C-alpha cells in the first residue's frame, strides 16, 4: 500500500516537472518571437536607408544625365530675370564701345570728298560754243569769260549746261561745230574751277563775277554785262586772271 502511494507521488512530481518545462518553453518561445518582431521592425528601416542611399548613386551614364537635369532650376523670379538682363546689356554695350574705339584708332581721318559737278558732254558743248563765239579772240581770259557766262546762267536759272547752250537765240551753238583741243582744254579748266567752287573752295580763279550773264560781240571782242537792257555794268576784267592773256 505504501509503495503504491509513493509511485503516485512520483507521477505527480513528474507531471509537475513536465508542466514546468512546458511553461519555460513557452516563455522562451514568446521572448524569441518578440525579438524577431523587433528585428522585423528595424529591418525595413535599414532597407529604406539603403534604398535612399542608392538613389543618389546612378549606375549608368543616362541615369546620371537625368539626375543632373532634374537638379537644374526651371524657373527664376522676375527680379532675377531683370538682373540677368541688365548684366547682359551692360556687357554688350561695353563690347560695342571697345570695338568702335579700335576702329576709330585704326582708320585714317577721311578728307573732304571732291564732287565733280559736270560731265564730259558739258565740256564738249562749251567747246562748241567757244568755237563760234570767240575762237578768233586773242585773249584767253576773254574766251574763258564766255564759258563762265554759260555757267553763271546754269547757277542763276538752276539749269544745266546742256539746256543753257541749246536755248533758242542765246548762244551760237551748233551740234555740227568742230571741237578744237585747245578750246576743249579751256572748257575743262573752267568747269573744274566752277566745280571746286561748288564744293566750297574759294579763290578758284574765276574771271567773271556770277551776276554777269549776258554778253555781245563787237569788233572782235566780247563785252559782258550784268543786265540785258536798261542800266547795266560792263565787266572791266578787274579780277586776277590765272591765264597769261
Biggest sheet: strands side by side, in what order? 1-2
- Contiguous low-pLDDT stretches (5 residues minimum) are 1-7, 39-61, 63-104
Strand portion, in percent? under 5%
Q: What can be said about the biggest beta sheet?
A: 2 strands, antiparallel
- The end-to-end span amounts to 189 Å
- Helix-strand topology string: HHHHHHHEE
CA-based shape: rod-shaped
Number of distinct beta strands: 2
The total count of helices amounts to 7
Taking all Cα atoms into account, the compactness measure Rg is: 60 Å
Secondary structure class reads mainly alpha
What integer is the average pLDDT?
A: 75
Helical coverage, percent range: 55-70%
Quick summary of this structure?
The chain has 245 residues and is mostly helical. The chain has 7 helices and 2 strands; from the N terminus they run αααααααββ.
Q: Could you outline the blueprint of secondary structure elements for this entry?
A:
Blueprint: H1 2-55, H2 61-70, H3 78-106, H4 120-134, H5 140-156, H6 161-165, H7 181-198, E1 214-218, E2 221-225
Antiparallel strand pairs: 1-2
Write up this protein.
The protein has seven helices and two strands; from the N terminus they run αααααααββ. It is mainly alpha-helical and 245 residues long. Among the domains are: 2-58; 120-225, no CATH class. The protein has a two-stranded antiparallel ribbon. Mean pLDDT is 75; it is low at 1-7, 39-61 and 63-104.
Amino acid at each position: 500500500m505504501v509503495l503504491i502511494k509513493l509511485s503516485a507521488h512520483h507521477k505527480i512530481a513528474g507531471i509537475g516537472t513536465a508542466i514546468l518545462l512546458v511553461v519555460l518553453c513557452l516563455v522562451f518561445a514568446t521572448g524569441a518571437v518578440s525579438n524577431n518582431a523587433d528585428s522585423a521592425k528595424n529591418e525595413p528601416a535599414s532597407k529604406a536607408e539603403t534604398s535612399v542611399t542608392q538613389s543618389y548613386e546612378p549606375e549608368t551614364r543616362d541615369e546620371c544625365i537625368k539626375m543632373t537635369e532634374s537638379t537644374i532650376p526651371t524657373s527664376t523670379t522676375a527680379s532675377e530675370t531683370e538682373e540677368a538682363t541688365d548684366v547682359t546689356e551692360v556687357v554688350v554695350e561695353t563690347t560695342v564701345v571697345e570695338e568702335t574705339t579700335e576702329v576709330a584708332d585704326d582708320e585714317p581721318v577721311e578728307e573732304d570728298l571732291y564732287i565733280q559737278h559736270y560731265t564730259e558732254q558739258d565740256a564738249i558743248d562749251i567747246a562748241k560754243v567757244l568755237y563760234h563765239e570767240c575762237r578768233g579772240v586773242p585773249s584767253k581770259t576773254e574766251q574763258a569769260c564766255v564759258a563762265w557766262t554759260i555757267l553763271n546762267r546754269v547757277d542763276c536759272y538752276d539749269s544745266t549746261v546742256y539746256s543753257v547752250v541749246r536755248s533758242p537765240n542765246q548762244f551760237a551753238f551748233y551740234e555740227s561745230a568742230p571741237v578744237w583741243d585747245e578750246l576743249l582744254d579751256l572748257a575743262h579748266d573752267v568747269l573744274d574751277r566752277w566745280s571746286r567752287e561748288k564744293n566750297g573752295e574759294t579763290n578758284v580763279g574765276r574771271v567773271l563775277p556770277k551776276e554777269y550773264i549776258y554778253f555781245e560781240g563787237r569788233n572782235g571782242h566780247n563785252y559782258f554785262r550784268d543786265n540785258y537792257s536798261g542800266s547795266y555794268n560792263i565787266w572791266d576784267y578787274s579780277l586776277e586772271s590765272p591765264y597769261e592773256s
